[in-house]
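Practice problem: predict the structure.
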Amino acid sequence: MSKGDQVYSPAEDSFLLLRAALREVRPDDRVLEVGTGSGYIAAGLRLSTWSLARRPKTGSGYIAAGLLGRAARVVATDINPHAAASACARGVEVVRTDLAAGISGPFDLILFNPPYLPTAPEERIDDWLECALDGGPTGRAVIERFIADAGRVLAPSGRILLLISSLTGPDEVREAFTRHGFVSFIVDEEKLDGETLYVLRAMRDLCRMGF
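Answer:
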């Protein structure tokens, strides 16, 4: 198997999450994409916010980025060495690590298109691409680890965009967010054959924090 075959290629879930992220991101955000894969989303965000920071002024030329705010800084992670190399080739600042392990925040926006397919132990395959697909028996094994640690690197008013599937159990994922002090709701969705993809937006529950 070639290195390219070991990296998850952009697909409907990638396109949906990028669409939601482009609506959500602010030009001066510090962004973390967990599990970047090919780097498609991180690179798309970086280029988009750079364009916003260099909007054309009246007449010819561009206003300097510093006068309008900085382009978002996008940092990405992936445990797959082939994915990390692919993202780096797209110009993404990438760290090879498991989820956000060893990463310091705070980040204003965290994105994650996780492994969400329910996978029985006997169905598991030991290769790097499988890491991008295998969500454990419920489809939520990696998602729950991510949610448990997200607050550590999220800014106080930061936002999380998480891609999930109807196969994953959206209600159970939202309950996991609630258990860890977040409020969450669906901001986008796309129906496919056999499943529906959702983007959840989560923030800290300020009521539970006493605000």
